[in-house]
Every structure is written in C-alpha cells, then in structure tokens.
Design brief:
Chain lengths: ~110, ~140
C-alpha cells in the first residue's frame, strides 16, 4: 500500500559502556489518517504505521503504539543505554502487515 | 421579543449541539484515560510535557514528554476526532523516560500526557496548544 517507505536512523558509531546515547529515527510514510477525503468526497482509508520498537541485543529500549494523530513521516527521538557492543534493531509495523527493519551497530 | 416556531427550534438545536459536542469529545478522552489507568487517581507532578504554545501548522506539531521512572507514557489530543496519539512503553535499556515526536492537531486544544510511574501510580500533565491551520485535512 504505502510505497517508498524508507527508514532513517541516526545512532552514534561508538559509545563508552553504560553511556546514554540519543537515537533519532525517521521513516518516510504517508500516515493516511482515515479522516481525509479525496476530490470525490470519499474518505481515504486509514493506512498508518501502528507500532515502532527499538531493541538492543534483544532487550527492549522503547515500544511505541501509534495512532493516526502521528504526523506524516513519523519521527522519534529517545535515549538508550549501551551496556556493551551490539546492534540496535529498529522495527516499524504497518497497518497493511508490512514490517520495516533497520539495524545499526554500536562499538564500545 | 417574539420568536417564531422556526427560530425557537433553530436556537434550541444550536444550544443542544454546543452542549453535546464537547461532552462527546471529553467522554472519548475520559474513556482512553480510564483504559490506560484502570480508573486510578492522577497526580499532578511527575510528568513533563513540552509543546509549543502556538503551532502554525497542525500537521506537524513537535512535542516532547519526559517522566523520570515511568514505565509508560500515553499522549492524548483532547480535540482530535480520535483522541489517542501514541503510547510509549519504555524498556530496561531506555536511558531516560523521555521521547519526542511530531503529531497532528485538528485545532486549538489541550494536549494531555499521562505517565504510568514505576510504583504503579499515574501522573497527568496538560498543555493548551493554539493551532493556526488544522492538521486533519478538513
């Protein structure tokens, strides 16, 4: 349904053990709220990303449930603790069942 | 001052609408809060909500929430067609219980943040945001 979905994530390349780092994520997605109408007056069906998760080596950092009130190209900024070297896995879940992934490695 | 039957009906209808509409919107907000808290009492301190006083474009309103020690934060927009915005669940590796995002606002309204704190209690914070151009494609 949604085309041209592209996740972008900004994570520092390295961190010291136990350091708190700021992570910024953005994914291009129209986030059709279901409230808008097309030129013929028909409601455009809802098509959004309804969940976003960030995990580090299998442990959850943040898990966000999203509603249609989140803007186009959903953007999130949050802080994570890095206990050891590893990978951040970012996952977005679309209404249509698609799952978008991104992975970023952090060295300690 | 005499009213015709038509005028009286119109007035009555308008009055009924002004009472019913805000009540319905508030009921949806109250339902969402009750579902999240399970009816628990809400403290005033413990969650901080950062939002602009005036947002020119209701399509992307930057917003930040922070609640030290919270396990989850729910964001609500009281004046949107559906009040829910997002719920942040923080895991063990979250360095701080804060996050920022961008949201849509249909018009000038209150934005509410409810945090579920680690001890099981809840905190509430609200802020009014003036919106110049609504963000629901009206």
């Amino acid at each position: 349904m949604a085309s041209g979905v592209k996740p972008r994530v900004k994570v520092p390349k390295s961190a010291s053990a136990g350091e708190a780092i700021v992570i910024k994520t953005l994914i291009s997605h129209p986030m059709e709220s279901g409230q808008r109408k097309d030129s013929n007056g028909n409601a455009i069906p809802r098509s959004i990303i309804n969940r976003f998760t960030c995990e580090f080596n299998g442990q959850s950092v943040v898990d966000v449930t999203m509603e249609p009130a989140i803007s186009t190209n959903p953007y999130f900024e949050f802080e994570a603790t890095v206990p050891e070297a590893g990978d951040f896995v970012f996952t977005w879940y679309d209404d249509d069942g698609s799952v978008y992934n991104d992975t970023q490695s952090v060295a300690v | 001052m005499d009213f015709t039957r038509r005028e009286t009906l119109a007035l009555g209808g308008a009055a009924a609408l002004t009472f019913v509409l805000p009540f319905r919107a508030n009921a949806a907000v109250d339902d969402a809060i009750a579902e999240f808290t399970g009816g628990a009492a809400l403290a005033d301190a413990g969650v901080e909500l950062t939002a602009p006083e005036i947002a020119e474009n209701g399509n992307t309103v930057p917003i930040a929430v922070s609640a030290p020690g919270a396990t989850a934060i729910m964001l609500l927009a009281a004046g949107n067609p559906t009040p829910g915005v997002a719920t942040f669940n923080f895991g063990p590796l979250a360095a701080s219980q804060s996050a920022s995002t961008r949201m849509r606002l249909a018009g000038t309204q209150d934005v509410i943040a409810i945090a579920k704190l680690a001890d099981g209690s809840f905190a509430r914070s609200a802020k009014t945001v003036k919106v110049t151009i609504g963000g629901c494609g009206g």
